[in-house]
Inverse folding.
């Protein structure tokens, strides 16, 4: 499959192998491919595939898609960053703050972001004793508790932590181990996990066909693309599986 | 009948650098004024005069409101427009003899610039009065958002900062428009359980929600997002219709991608000889947009054809038709599923229309005009929907946003995560200051209020978003360091129980925002007041 333009230049997908030689030449010309006259069909197709692969790569780089201007709020002045003048009042931010603490923030349905800092005193104590540091992750899900450790170094100060869906919460503690003795240095607050009615009530899906159509109507483009969200994708997948079982 | 809630969100980060004769990022405001806010007002006034029965909601963010009512920035906009007009006059002469295909567009741009400047002056340089007049006629519902457009889910551990963002947003709206806002635009559609409670406590009736919040909610939705959602606090949520908005919004197949529409990037600022454009670009010889653009998008090629307004207008007509037809067809399908009078919540950034999509204002005009003339549609506002019928889904909604992936990844990833340890520490310390120095008057009070402003300005969602998009990253980082550094000046001075008066006067001059700031909002003990 490749992308090409209809009369309105909206991007559509066509099967590249189904195009005639003249259509291929015409598209290749539009795409700025040189020496088309000397190429056979396979060579043109190969050039076009390379071209669109390059374009897709570019498009995947955030901000490089020219149409992204419709999505990003303000004019992009990135190419002249070096000319941004100094602003008054700017001071260097401290690299570390004096307190020992740890924080956990929800990034998405599957990831949490954790950052922490150690007081100089604490850091020196662990380093002097050749101790170690780790994160103790606690997941509470449907009333059951699960723990696991993530070893970190004294120079680390952030970590992404995988989390499940479900009725429950996640929290993390910063732990030191010196001479076999563990000590909780700081604990984060708990963050709620993402849970959803439909992931908990899959058995109802078979009787909810019209609701399913209604839901899809809000979150699907005219090209059939679903809104980008892992929980939505799981729910839709489950609906489809239930539908197939009927 | 298909009820359409068109909700436009006008927002720009607070940018004001009077310490420089010209400052490039101030152009964000000037471009949006000239290409979106003024032409948009003109179009809405025209429809009103013609008796077109349209209604819509517009959110003007507190930072934008502050800049639009700032006399110094108003004067700088006039200077910007005068330069644009001067360039237009040169362009009209030049295109008589060369690039003659561009001549008509040069005349058009010049006329547009003159008309926009005239209109700006006719409103005493404050176009918000024009929007307010339309609100008084019940054509539009004006709403507000968080004080500096902070992405609120990432601050939910700091109720004082959330409250300060909500209260200062509402306060700024009331100060400028003279009325309380019933609606509150959640920045980036960012919701977390409990935010509805804060909004309700502060008198807000409704907010918009991300489209996927319905299917992923903790309760079973009956109406699938085509009726309002009653959140646990009683606040009403209006889920965004991603399906319909993507007809416009999609970066792949949205209407603005059409090859007949005007290309945004091919601007004479980038290709005319430097000597010619030098007075209209950035010093020292940094090429930037001038607004004079003569080519159509054409396609994914460097060879752009000249723009034809006639062809573009025909495309606008077709796209208006297609847009309304798509809603009507969806409405029929939804009614067959047993839902009468579905509500379509169509949320867009206001700057899309006119600035980023040159023909966007004409598109909006067409949609409002044609839609109002048809018995298939009723343009409405969320407040009207709430008042007209009480039919709601009662849902507990998960944390969500309209960012990529539907959560917080855009504002919290490898490019920008470092900022939160500093911003959140500043909030902690601001709370500490309110405890140590409660209810201060005079100089110390001003000092602490300035610290609160700096904290709020550092929380703007624009900075992490720019870092994530890798656009004006240097500027965003400098701004963030500026606000946090300024906060640290206050914190360290107050720890010594002193006030740096000279610094304070300069800082107050620099960031003239939130004159009614009260640092006690950051007092955790007053959070339930």
């Amino acid at each position: 499959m490749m992308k090409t333009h209809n009369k309105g230049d909206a991007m559509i997908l066509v099967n590249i192998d189904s195009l005639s030689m003249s259509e291929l030449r015409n598209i290749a010309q539009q795409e700025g491919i040189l020496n088309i006259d000397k190429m056979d069909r396979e060579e043109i197709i190969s050039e076009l595939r390379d071209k669109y692969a390059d374009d897709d790569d570019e498009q995947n780089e955030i901000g490089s898609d020219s149409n992204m201007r419709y999505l990003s709020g303000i004019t992009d002045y990135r190419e002249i960053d070096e000319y941004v003048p100094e602003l008054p009042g700017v001071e260097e931010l401290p690299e570390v703050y004096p307190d020992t603490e740890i924080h956990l923030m929800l990034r998405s349905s599957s990831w949490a972001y954790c950052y922490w800092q150690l007081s100089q005193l604490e850091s020196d104590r662990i380093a002097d004793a050749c101790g170690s540091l780790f994160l103790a992750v606690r997941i509470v899900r449907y009333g059951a508790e699960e723990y696991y450790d993530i070893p970190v170094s004294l120079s680390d100060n952030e970590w992404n932590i995988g989390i499940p869906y479900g009725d429950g919460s996640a929290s993390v503690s910063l732990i030191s181990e010196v001479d076999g003795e563990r000590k909780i240095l700081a604990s984060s607050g708990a963050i709620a996990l993402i849970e959803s009615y439909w992931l908990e009530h899959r058995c109802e899906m078979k009787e909810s066909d019209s609701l399913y159509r209604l839901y899809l109507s809000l979150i699907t483009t005219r090209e059939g693309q679903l809104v980008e969200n892992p929980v939505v994708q799981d729910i839709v997948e489950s609906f489809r599986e239930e539908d197939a079982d009927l | 009948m298909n009820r359409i809630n068109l909700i436009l969100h006008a927002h720009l980060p607070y940018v004001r650098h009077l310490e420089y004769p010209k400052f490039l990022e101030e152009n964000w405001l000037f471009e949006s004024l000239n290409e979106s806010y003024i032409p948009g007002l003109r179009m809405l006034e025209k429809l009103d005069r013609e008796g077109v029965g349209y209604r819509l909601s517009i959110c003007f963010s507190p930072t934008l409101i502050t800049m639009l009512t700032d006399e110094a920035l108003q004067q700088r906009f006039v200077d910007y427009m005068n330069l644009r007009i001067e360039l237009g006059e040169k362009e009209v002469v030049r295109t008589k003899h060369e690039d003659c295909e561009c001549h008509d567009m040069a005349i058009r741009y010049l006329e547009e610039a003159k008309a926009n400047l005239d209109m700006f002056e006719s409103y005493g340089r404050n176009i918000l009065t024009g929007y307010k007049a339309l609100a008084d006629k019940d054509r539009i519902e004006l709403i507000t958002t968080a004080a500096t457009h902070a992405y609120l889910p990432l601050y939910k551990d700091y109720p004082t900062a959330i409250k300060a963002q909500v209260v200062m947003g509402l306060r700024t709206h009331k100060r400028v428009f003279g009325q309380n806002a019933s609606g509150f635009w959640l920045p980036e559609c960012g919701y977390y359980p409990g935010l509805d409670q804060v909004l309700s406590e502060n008198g807000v009736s409704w907010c918009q929600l991300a489209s996927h919040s319905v299917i992923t909610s903790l309760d079973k939705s009956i109406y699938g997002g085509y009726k309002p959602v009653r959140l646990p606090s009683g606040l009403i949520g209006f889920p965004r219709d991603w399906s319909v908005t993507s007809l416009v919004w999609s970066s792949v197949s949205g209407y603005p991608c059409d090859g007949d529409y005007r290309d945004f990037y091919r601007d004479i600022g980038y290709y005319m000889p430097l000597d010619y454009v030098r007075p209209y670009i950035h010093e020292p010889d940094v090429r930037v947009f001038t607004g004079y653009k003569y080519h159509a998008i054409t396609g994914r090629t460097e060879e752009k054809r000249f723009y034809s307004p006639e062809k573009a207008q025909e495309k606008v007509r077709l796209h208006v038709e297609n847009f309304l037809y798509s809603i009507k067809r969806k409405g029929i399908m939804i009614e067959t599923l047993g839902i009468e009078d579905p509500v379509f919540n169509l949320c867009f950034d206001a700057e899309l229309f006119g600035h980023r999509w040159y023909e966007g204002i004409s598109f909006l005009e067409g949609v409002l005009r044609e839609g109002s003339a048809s018995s298939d549609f009723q343009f409405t506002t969320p407040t009207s929907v709430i008042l007209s019928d009480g039919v709601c889904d009662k849902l507990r909604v998960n944390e969500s946003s309209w960012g990529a992936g539907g959560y917080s990844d855009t504002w919290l990833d490898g490019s920008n995560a470092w900022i939160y340890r500093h911003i959140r520490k500043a909030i902690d310390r601001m709370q500490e200051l309110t405890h140590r120095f409660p209810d201060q008057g005079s100089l110390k009070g001003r000092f602490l209020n300035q610290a609160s402003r700096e904290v709020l300005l550092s929380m703007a969602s624009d900075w992490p978003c720019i870092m994530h998009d890798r656009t004006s990253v240097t500027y965003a980082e400098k701004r963030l360091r500026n606000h946090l550094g300024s906060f640290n000046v206050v914190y360290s001075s107050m720890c010594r129980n002193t006030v740096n008066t000279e610094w304070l006067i300069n800082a107050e001059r620099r960031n003239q925002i939130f004159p009614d700031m009260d640092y006690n909002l950051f007092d955790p003990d007053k959070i339930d007041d």
Summary: Chain B touches chain A through 116 residues (CB under 8 Å). The first strand of chain B starts at residue 2 and ends at 10. Residues 2-61+135-252+309-405 of chain B form a domain with the 7-stranded beta/alpha barrel fold (CATH 3.20.110.10). The radius of gyration of chain B is 24 Å.
